[in-house]
């Protein structure tokens, strides 16, 4: 059986090539992951914008129907006040400060057995 004989320099060079190939592969996968994360974030923003515009169009459509056909003042008040209530709720949730640990103030959360978190 004739074996392959390699000098120590060739072995070190081979290992170095393998390390470089591994490092390039890892860098490429990290770059691809960052690009995918950025694309996902952009898609989420576009999706959110689309949903907001769709809901706004629905609110405007219903309000336009009620305003263009007057006759029931209670229905008019409800249709005009509902978007304001939703917007107030969303803004209140968005602007309410919470502690950095994510817990809410005023409530104590307990695990099973009475142990506090």
TrEMBL record:
Keyword terms of this UniProt record: Membrane, Transmembrane, Transmembrane helix
Residue ranges crossing the lipid bilayer per the database entry: 6-25, 45-67, 73-91
Protein name: Uncharacterized protein
Origin organism lineage: Bacteria, Bacillati, Actinomycetota, Actinomycetes, Pseudonocardiales
């Amino acid at each position: 059986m004739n074996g392959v004989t390699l000098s120590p320099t060739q072995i070190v060079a081979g290992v170095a090539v393998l390390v470089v190939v591994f490092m390039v592969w890892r860098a490429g996968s990290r770059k691809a992951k960052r690009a995918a994360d950025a694309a996902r974030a952009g898609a989420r923003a576009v999706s959110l914008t689309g949903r907001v515009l769709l809901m706004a169009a629905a609110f405007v459509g219903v309000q336009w129907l009620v305003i263009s056909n007057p006759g029931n003042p209670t229905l008019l008040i409800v249709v005009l006040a509902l978007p304001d209530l939703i917007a107030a709720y969303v803004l209140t949730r968005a602007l309410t400060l919470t502690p950095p640990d994510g817990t809410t103030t005023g409530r104590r959360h307990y695990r099973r057995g009475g142990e506090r978190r």
